[in-house]
Every structure is written in structure tokens, then in C-alpha cells.
Design a protein that fits this description.
Keywords: Kinase, Membrane, Transferase, Transmembrane, Transmembrane helix, Two-component regulatory system. Pfam families: DUF5931 (PF19354), HATPase_c (PF02518), HisKA_3 (PF07730). The protein has 14 helices and 7 strands. By secondary structure, the chain is of the alpha+beta class. Helix 3 runs parallel beside helix 6.
């Protein structure tokens, strides 16, 4: 993700290429110098310096402040040494200095390492050295000085902006990862702890006596825990947390005080047939959903295995279980539900439909704004983490239908993220 690394590589290439160019210039002007041996000596020292330090500009860790100062010293020293090597006439005619355009590489190193302020200081030092050599404000001298100064400051500013953007992106990715972990933990709590607390509250109220006080305390803890989870203050959970307790929840996510019923999905989980989220082997979705079939649930499946990664299959089965719980609570004991499994080329689609009264318009959105967890996390959150979607269709008086789509190869916390619509 580093924005700087390509810049450092480009600087290394620039220094090498400009050294070759400068050596060619000195070779072509050898006979024109007043003291050619001094020019050869400087170029030899510069070549040795480059051979010993070329790796210094390949990464920000290697390019230290001391190296940059020494590199700038070679550039400024070479510019000033031109007064001794070349004739006054050639200098005034615009002959290049000894380091020529190689000197810009030292300035660019300051720009990439320290930003525009460092670049301004380094380019000013090079500018002063060039003005001392020319001893007058010639047009071409001013042009070159301004060009180096503006280019280095601009590159330094761009580097600072890129670093700030990189830090912002890293922070955003950390927040996104933490949010997804919190949502997954919230689903676990909703599917287990909150349901048990609701059951304890109902049973305690029915028994009376000291049990009633215990039920009241359980109800208070349920409200406090629900508020904590909805507010996003729960620390992240370990990946692959199992969902051990079957649940009863209403369609808007609020835990209801209904009799605890270890249904087909619960028996499957208790028997160990539901794979853990850490399992990586393929799993037939039909084997996880078939136990739901019964007098009130019709299960339709393809004739061939419907394969998903075990973790994705477990998440999909848990979402279907939550949808059936909503049917039992809202549509009533006499309602009938249908489960349809479709194996598409790139995705597995499971549709859960019932013949109940349907979901009032806007009820799902209202429940999510109120911080209720059933649909928002137990169904929609699971599918979103798999890169899939959960889509509801409901007509008052004609039942409700939820279509759960999981892309093949999906696994919790992996793959691309999908959208979930209601």
C-alpha cells in the first residue's frame, strides 16, 4: 500500500541515469576544461559515492538525514568546483556545471523524505551555489533555479498529501474491521445470551417468588447487554465463534419471552452436524437445512449436492434459522413456511417464504434504527460478511419472503463485500 516506494525507486533510477549523462558531458568537454584532471577526479569520486550509496534511495528507512546532507554536499561542492575547472567564458556562455542535472536528485531525495519544507531548503542551497558560479542573474540561470525549486517543493507537497491519505485509509480499514468484528459478536450474543436471558425472565415471572426476582434481574441485564451491543462498545470477538444456542426472536430483532423450543436447527447444532466457522472443507447446504422440514415447513432442494465452504454454509443455515424463528413468532403457530434451495452457477440462493400477515411497510428500517438485532445482524449481517445479500419482499396480508444469496467460495470475513437490501 506504500505510496512512497515507487517514488524511491524512481529516484534511484534518476540518480543512476543522470550520473551516466553527466559522465558523458564531462567526457565530451574534457579538452575544453582549464583543469580537466580536477573534473576527472570529481567525477571519479562521484561515481564511487554512487556505487557505495545507490541502495540508500531505494527505501525511506535506508535514506537517512545524514546521507541526504552528504549527498547534497557532493552536489553543491561539484557546482562550486566548476569555478576552478572551467573557464570564465564557458561558464558565462551557459556551460553545465560538473554535476549538471545529477544535483537535482539530491534535492528530490529531501523532497520525498521530508516533504516540501526540506525540499525548499535543499533547492535553495543548490540555487545559491548556481548563482555564485554564474555571478550574475542571467535568464537561463534564473530559469533553472526556479524550475528546480518549484518542482522539488511540489513533489514534497504531493508526498505529504499522499502520506496523510495513506494514514487515513489505514485508519478507515481498521475501523471497518473492528466494526465487522463487533457485528459478528453482536450476532453471537443475540443468538445465545440474549435469548437465554429472555427465557429466564419469562420463566421466573411464571414461577414467582425468588425466581421472579431472578427473572427481573435477568430482564435488566438483557436490556443493558442489548444497549451495549447496539452501541458498538463490545470488544472484538475471535474469528469463528460458534453459535451454540438456538433462539427465538421476533422479526424486528427484539428478543421475545416465548417458550424455548430446541427446533430442528438446534438439534442439528447440538448433534455437531453444523460445521464450525473454522472448518474449511466443502459442505452440502441441504444437509444443514433439511432438519427444518416438518409439518409446518416444506423443504425443496435440488437433486444434486449444493456445496459451499463449511463456514459459509454454517452462516447461511443460521440465517435461515433466524428467518424461520421470525415466521413462528409473527405468523403464528398455524402458519406454514417454505424453504427453497437454488444452486446457481455463481451463487447459492435460499428463499424462505411464509403465508402469515406479512411485514408492515417500514418496520424493518424502524427496528434497525432502534438498535434491534434480529434482522439487522442475525440475517443481514451474516449475509453481508459472506459477500452476499438478504432481500425482503412482503405484502400485508399475503405473507413475507426473504431471499438469501451467498456467492460460491464465500467465507466469513473473506471475499468481497456485498450489499444487503431490505
Amino acid at each position: 500500500m506504500s505510496v512512497e516506494l515507487p517514488l524511491w525507486r524512481a529516484l534511484t533510477g534518476y540518480r543512476v541515469l543522470t550520473l551516466v549523462y553527466t559522465l558523458c558531458l564531462v567526457a565530451l568537454s574534457y579538452r575544453k576544461y582549464e583543469h580537466p584532471l580536477v573534473a576527472v577526479g570529481y567525477m571519479g569520486a562521484l561515481t564511487v559515492w554512487m556505487a557505495l550509496t545507490w541502495r540508500r534511495t531505494t527505501s525511506p528507512e535506508r535514506c537517512t538525514r545524514h546521507f541526504l546532507i552528504a549527498d547534497l554536499g557532493f552536489a553543491v561542492g561539484g557546482i562550486l568546483l566548476t569555478l576552478l575547472v572551467d573557464s570564465r567564458a564557458r561558464i558565462m556562455d551557459g556551460a553545465p556545471t560538473l554535476p549538471s542535472i545529477w544535483a537535482a536528485g539530491a534535492v528530490l531525495g529531501f523532497a520525498i523524505k521530508g516533504g516540501w519544507r526540506w525540499a525548499a531548503v535543499a533547492s535553495s542551497a543548490v540555487a545559491v551555489a548556481n548563482l555564485v558560479v554564474r555571478q550574475e542573474l542571467a535568464r537561463d540561470t534564473i530559469h533553472n533555479v526556479v524550475l528546480v525549486w518549484v518542482a522539488s517543493v511540489a513533489i514534497g507537497y504531493v508526498v505529504e498529501v499522499a502520506r496523510a491519505s495513506e494514514r487515513t485509509l489505514a485508519r478507515a480499514l481498521q475501523i471497518e474491521a473492528a466494526t465487522r468484528e463487533r457485528e459478528r459478536l453482536a450476532r453471537d450474543i443475540h443468538d445465545s445470551v440474549l435469548q437465554v436471558l429472555a427465557m429466564v425472565q419469562r420463566r421466573g415471572a411464571a414461577i414467582g417468588g425468588e425466581a421472579a426476582e431472578l427473572g427481573r434481574m435477568a430482564g435488566e441485564q438483557e436490556v443493558a447487554l442489548r444497549t451495549l451491543v447496539a452501541g458498538g462498545l463490545v470488544p472484538p470477538a475471535r474469528p469463528g465463534t460458534a453459535r451454540p444456542v438456538p433462539h427465538e426472536a421476533d422479526g424486528d430483532g427484539e428478543a421475545r419471552s416465548v417458550p424455548y423450543d430446541e427446533g430442528a436447527a438446534g438439534r442439528a447444532a447440538a448433534s455437531g452436524s453444523v460445521p464450525s466457522a473454522a472448518a474449511g472443507e466443502p459442505c452440502d447446504v441441504r444437509a444443514l437445512l433439511a432438519p427444518h422440514a416438518g409439518a409446518g415447513v416444506t423443504f425443496s432442494e435440488p437433486g444434486a449436492p449444493v456445496v459451499l465452504p463449511a463456514a459459509a454454509a454454517a452462516e447461511l443455515a443460521a440465517a435461515v434459522s433466524a428467518a424461520l424463528d421470525n415466521v413462528r413468532v409473527h405468523a403464528g403457530a398455524g402458519a406454514h413456511a417454505w424453504i427453497l434451495v437454488e444452486d446457481e452457477p455463481h451463487a447459492v440462493i435460499v428463499t424462505v417464504r411464509d403465508d402469515g400477515p406479512g411485514i408492515p411497510e417500514g418496520r424493518l428500517a424502524d427496528a434497525e434504527r432502534e438498535g434491534r438485532l434480529g434482522v439487522a445482524l442475525s440475517i443481514r449481517g451474516r449475509l453481508r460478511d459472506l459477500g452476499g445479500s438478504a432481500e425482503w419482499v412482503s405484502v400485508p396480508g399475503q405473507g413475507a419472503e426473504v431471499e438469501l444469496t451467498v456467492p460460491k467460495g464465500a467465507a466469513p470475513e473473506g471475499g468481497k463485500r456485498g450489499k444487503a437490501t431490505a
